[in-house]
Design brief:
- The protein contains 21 helices and 29 strands.
- By secondary structure, the protein is an alpha+beta fold.
- The strands form nine sheets. Strands 3, 25, 26, 27, 28 and 29 form a six-stranded mixed sheet that branches. Strands 17, 18, 19, 22, 23 and 24 form a six-stranded mixed sheet that branches. A five-stranded antiparallel sheet has the order 5-6-9-10-11, with helices on one face.
- A hairpin with a 2-residue loop joins β18 and β19.
- The longest helix has 35 residues.
- The protein starts with 22 loop residues before the first helix and ends with a strand.
Amino acid sequence: MTSTTPSPTRGRPRDAGGRRLGPLATTILVIAVVVALTLVAAQVVTEYWWFDEAGYSRVLLTEWGTKLVLFLVGALFMGAALWGNVVLAHRKRPVYADTAARVGPMDQYRNAFEPLRRLATIAVPLIIGLFAGLAMASRWQEIQLWLHGQSFAETDPQFHLDLSFYVFTLPALQFLLSFVTVTAVLALILTAFISYLYGGFQIRQLPHARPTVAVTYAARMHLSILGAVVMVLVAAHFWLSRYATLMSATGVAQGADYTAVHAGIPARTILAGVALVVAALFVAVGVRGNWRLPALGLGLMVITGLLIGVAYPTIVARFQVQPNAQELEAPFIQRNIDATRTAFGLNDIDVRDYAATTTAEAGALREDAETTASIRLLDPNVVSPAFRQLQQNKQYYNFAETLAVDKYTFGDTSHDTVIGVRELNIAGLGEDQRNWVNEHTVFTHGYGVVAAYGNQVTSDGRPAFFESDIPSVGKLSDSSASESYEARIYFSPNAPQYSIVGSQSGTEPWELDYPDDSAAGQVKTTFPTTTTSAGPKLDNFASRLLYSLKFQSEQILFSDRVNSDSQIVYDRNPAQRVSKVAPYLTLDGRVYPAVVDGRVVWIVDGYTTSGNYPYATRQALDSATQDSLTQSSSSVDALEADQVNYLRNSVKATVDAFDGTVTLYAWDDTDPVLKTWQQVFPSTVKPLSEMSAALISHIRYPEDLFKVQRTVLAKYHVTDAAAFFTAQDFWQAPKDPTGSVGGTTAAVQPPYYVTLQMPGQDASSFSLTSTFIPGGNSDRQILTGFLAADADAGNVAGVKSAGYGKLRLLVL
């Protein structure tokens, strides 16, 4: 009788050799899996909690979902294609009657490989497929732009296609085509390897004869079809490359020049046709079995490529274009000028010739009295030490190295303002104060803003503050003022990594609010977690465990100060918060504070960009926005090192300094790139109509956009193609003399905000300004141009000023 008692080892995991694991090994394996999953959850789950608390969980789920789908598609497509071709090649191998008697070199290799064949057949496609899936997932933004691309309602001057094809569709098609081509080539290589290893084709060497190749019918059909697929894909590459020439850097200006249009594009068209002919020849091999035809076709394609793809364009450029370059290239240079000015928002500049005079006359400044009265006496780039000396109050507070410029209206008068936030500075604590309790539960926030008139100083030269001290005193914190504000600063560029806020009901507060002169020496507070959310809750063991792992701090799990009312506040840099909820934006290197509707908010400028605008010249954002401030100040950053030829300030974002709320506003709702992303992430960007008047009054023209436009305008103020070709009137931004060392300067001057009245304006306005000097390596610092952007967005709710962003250029 057969026993039905289950074996004590049945169901246990097995090791790589198929042996069952013992109880200890099984326990260790289970623990290892649980630990690994917990560590993963500490990153994944907490990330979801952060987005959910911020109100942007749909952004994260859309990104994760897109990446997951693309990973699966890429991995399955690559893995299945490679596995299927390898299996098919093996199944169609020739079968020999007496394999044991065969002792040739290939038989030895075959016998050595056979025990590993099943593993290799699965492992190799699987590993390659995993990498392919990761590569596919990394391009999720390109795929989403392709799927949701909106029309530009403009066409390119060469192929007359909507610009959305180049910005949204072409990059995705090029990537997908490259992905499929790599798959086909790898499948061809692996198929050839298996066919050769198992005798599908053999190289035979007879005495006194040339080597011959013997191929079975199955191998010939398989390889010929794969070869044809590869050639069809090559033809598609040639065809798409025709459109890519409109973004190429050729000749004097970027985009397809005379040679590319009259030689390069036709050559690519011909090569695409030749590749299709070669593909047909590969198909013919499967029928006729003659490999000479595709071999001749490949040779023909190489020769054709050298003749019409290399030699012919070279001849055209050398003997036709170079002797007549200015005339022949003029239409294409003009395309580049028009496209570049449009792509960077420079196609509506008010340009005026300005006859400067150097002889002073009595009363010459009378007409500019308002501008003269607004001349700033406080430089926000150098006044920070004075703010620290007079208003820092305690060593655990600090101000940014470079303060912000803004404007505030009291009564009927607008005042240029230099403003800074008193941020928390954990590094300022003494060594005896540096412990986990103090750093993460006591010192949790900064306190208040400090603001001074930009064009006034006191009798002893100090800033004339209209908002200062702790607790805050002044025009902004007056209880009768319309803008009396919440002074606690939990979110700021230099805030600590994380803080735990909120104490249990009935417990004495322990968060330091601000120091005072009372007997206790300090006022304490508790963040109102029962009514306000600033971060994920720590109200259960699981959340405390995951965050203790995330921040590698066991105190989060065991401290009595973490209770059911606690919230954990992290990712506190305003720019970081905006970049997480809007991953498609490039953010300005400076965030600036404003007191708006009773709260301190950080205003962040977001840009939509592209590097695929036809005929527009690309600019390196990092070099274009680099100046003396980005080199010397940690509070001002240059943009990331992207090459773009389309730039729009499409989004204005705010981050509440008290609770971290991120709000996105569509500042340029006509931008096709923003409209496309709004299709991807619906309902995440609010319309401009929802922006309050108080907020609009503090919006200003962004510095990084202005710096990029300044860099582009140094060349593209020249709008005549013939003059552009000679390059004799190019400009550059002047070097910053305050940064000179040994008579030389390392970086250009930053732009400056100032209230002034430009020629053609009816009244003075808050503006962002810069100057130009002649280009080249000359040391002559001669003023050749003065550029100003109207930086005043107005003060009407939901409506930006009609003059906002207007660029005015004085040419001297």
